[in-house]
Amino acid sequence: MDLEKIESAVYQILEAIGEDPNRSGLQDTPKRVARMYAEIFSGVEKDPAEHAKVVFHEDTDEIVLVKDIPFYSTCEHHLVPFFGVGHIAYMPKDGQVIGLSKLARILDEVSKKPQIQERITTTVADILMEHLDPQGVMVVLEAEHMCMTMRGVKKPGSKTVTSAVRGAFKQSFKSRSEVLELIKL
């Protein structure tokens, strides 16, 4: 990531909006923003699928759900944050399970780039289907988008919910309903 280029761009933005980038409160802002961008866009150069490569064997084929996983991303249309919680469920096949923290890490890395919520949802589901080869995967994300809260329509508190349903969860209404009920608990 080119931090100097980010600093220069932020300096120019401050000038363009009519601010003095050299005043005391703004002098270090370009550097701070560059460091922040390095952190919040750290997923740009990473492969989140790396977290799905270590699997374990456990004699189970029952639903595994990690819910209420906080995530943060940046809207690729307006470069403002959106944030919420993710719920990731899968049904192991042949006893192949993944460490629970890996589900959160995959969501985290997919989110850390300019994104849209729909793409995050499908990418997480596709990574798990491809690398874990489960019977099914279900990913549900709920998020508040600052592009709807602080600008445009200005509707704070509104939530966007997206889902990606694969395999057994797509084929079986009963399994899909069970995951949704578990998310509500």
From TrEMBL:
Q: Which domain of life is it from?
A: Bacteria
Which InterPro entries does the entry mention? Answer: GTP-CH-I_C/QueF (IPR043133), GTP-CH-I_N (IPR043134), GTP_CycHdrlase_I (IPR001474), GTP_CycHdrlase_I_CS (IPR018234), GTP_CycHdrlase_I_dom (IPR020602)
Q: What class of enzyme is it?
A: hydrolase
Binding site residues for Zn(2+): 75, 78, 147
- Pathway it acts in? Cofactor biosynthesis; 7,8-dihydroneopterin triphosphate biosynthesis; 7,8-dihydroneopterin triphosphate from GTP: step 1/1
MF (Gene Ontology):
GTP binding; GTP cyclohydrolase I activity; zinc ion binding
Any one Gene Ontology cellular component term annotated for this protein: cytoplasm
Its keywords, alphabetically, are: GTP-binding, Hydrolase, Metal-binding, Nucleotide-binding, One-carbon metabolism, Zinc
- Pfam families listed in its UniProt record: GTP_cyclohydroI
What are the BP-aspect GO terms? one-carbon metabolic process; tetrahydrobiopterin biosynthetic process; tetrahydrofolate biosynthetic process
Q: What is its EC number?
A: 3.5.4.16
GTP cyclohydrolase I domain spans which residues?
6-183
Q: Which reaction does it catalyse?
A: GTP + H2O = 7,8-dihydroneopterin 3'-triphosphate + formate + H(+)
Instruction: Note the PANTHER family from the entry.
Output: GTP CYCLOHYDROLASE 1, GTP CYCLOHYDROLASE I
Q: Which HAMAP family match?
A: FolE
- What interactions and quaternary structure are annotated? Homopolymer.
Give the family from UniProt.
Belongs to the GTP cyclohydrolase I family.
Record's protein name: GTP cyclohydrolase 1
Which organism's genome codes for this protein?
Trichococcus palustris
